[in-house]
From TrEMBL, chain A:
Keyword Manganese: no
Record keyword Metal-binding present: no
Keywords linked to the UniProt accession: Membrane, Transmembrane, Transmembrane helix
Organism: Yoonia maricola
Alphabetical list of InterPro entries matching this protein: PqiA-like (IPR007498)
Matches recorded under Pfam families: PqiA (PF04403)
Transmembrane segments: 50-70, 98-124, 144-162, 168-188
Protein known as: Paraquat-inducible protein A
TrEMBL record, chain B:
Regions crossing the membrane: 44-64, 90-117, 138-157, 169-188
Main location: membrane
Annotated organism of origin: Yoonia maricola
Record keywords: Cell inner membrane, Cell membrane, Membrane, Transmembrane, Transmembrane helix
Transmembrane helix in keyword set: yes
InterPro entries, per database record: PqiA-like, PqiA-PqiB_transport
Pfam families registered for this protein in UniProt: PqiA
The name this protein goes by in its record: Paraquat-inducible protein A
PANTHER family linked to this entry: INTERMEMBRANE TRANSPORT PROTEIN PQIA, INTERMEMBRANE TRANSPORT PROTEIN PQIB-RELATED
Amino acid sequence: MHTTPLDDLVACPQCDTLHVASMLPEQTSAHCQQCGIVLMTSQPAAMARILSLALTAFIMMIAAVSFPFLTLDAGGLHNATSVIDAVLAFNDGYAFPLAVAVAFFIVVIPLMRLVALIYALGPLVREKKPRQGARKAFALAERLRPWSMAEIFIVGVTVALIKVAGLAAVTIGPAFWAFAGVVVITVLKDQLICRYSIWEALDKATA
Amino acid sequence: MITARDAGLVACQQCGQVHPLGTQVCKRCEGRLQSRDVDSLQKVWAWLIAGMIAYIPANIYPMLLTSTLVERSESTIIGGVFDLVEHGSWGIAIIVFVASVMIPVGKFVAIIYLAISVQRRSRANQHERHKAYEVVEFIGRWSMIDVFVVAILSALVQLDTIATVNPGIAAVSFALSVIFTMLSAQAFDSRLIWDVARTKE
């Protein structure tokens, strides 16, 4: 009944319409015929770029949690805040679960995604066999995507800065710029990720 | 156009790999396979109702507890927006209002509409409904802005007697409301939007 082998078929994840996969010319993308979502994109050397961006973001994230984030001065008093302090702001009594959630949204999940991607794609870029569990790692990185909220946090920080600006002098620390860098690089990296191509690459590298 | 299900196949939503119908686990990414999530709408309604319930205390109770030398004050979500307007920060007031009021409420309405239209087997506006689903999935997380604002303010403004800011209970309920509605949107199986029309054709 099927004239095409199963591996050459692609079903749209959002509306289940079947398509036959074909080689895409570079710098183009294929859309679902029924609902219009992007099914796959073709970008030359995307894998190496994703990996290098993920490594950069990882290093910047380490800087963002270690250095001072914001400093507040008013009436002779001084208070320096790191990203960790922002997480611990909810650390009293009833709000404790929220502290854990915020820690996950802005630091732990973004870091987990980066580590998983580096782990899964590292060997592929060097044209070696994928590591054990590479598939699980890549699937995890993609599943965590909506829960990684670093970019939302940076907008929240901007709003908070404007709220305090009238009351006290706020100094922006190096961690702020590192964190902003993580956000920009993560967006660039996620735009390069084409799930279909990466799964194909994982398949090819295993075979 | 033919669907994977009509062709006797089941597709992996995680990696796109196609398998014969009845396969349970994807051979490529080891994800669980379901041709249609039959419990989708039940989960959508359950998470949505939880999210709407959590949104009530989020609006009644204070988000921020501020104490300065001269006064102690509490501000709710809407109160915070009005404060910003009084200070003349219109742009920020609009951002907070959109993130904390318009997006959550818009999301409730959009999810209710999507769920009911699927239950009624509606065949109208499929493209618009699919767009609505994509927008809801994409934009829902941005409501978290206000929770992060509270986190930063309470970490930053800790100047002993001069001024301190602490999080209120509404911050917790608001965060829960956002998380529940995100789960509700994720539980929605968008393939259901398209199924009705295709089976009638």
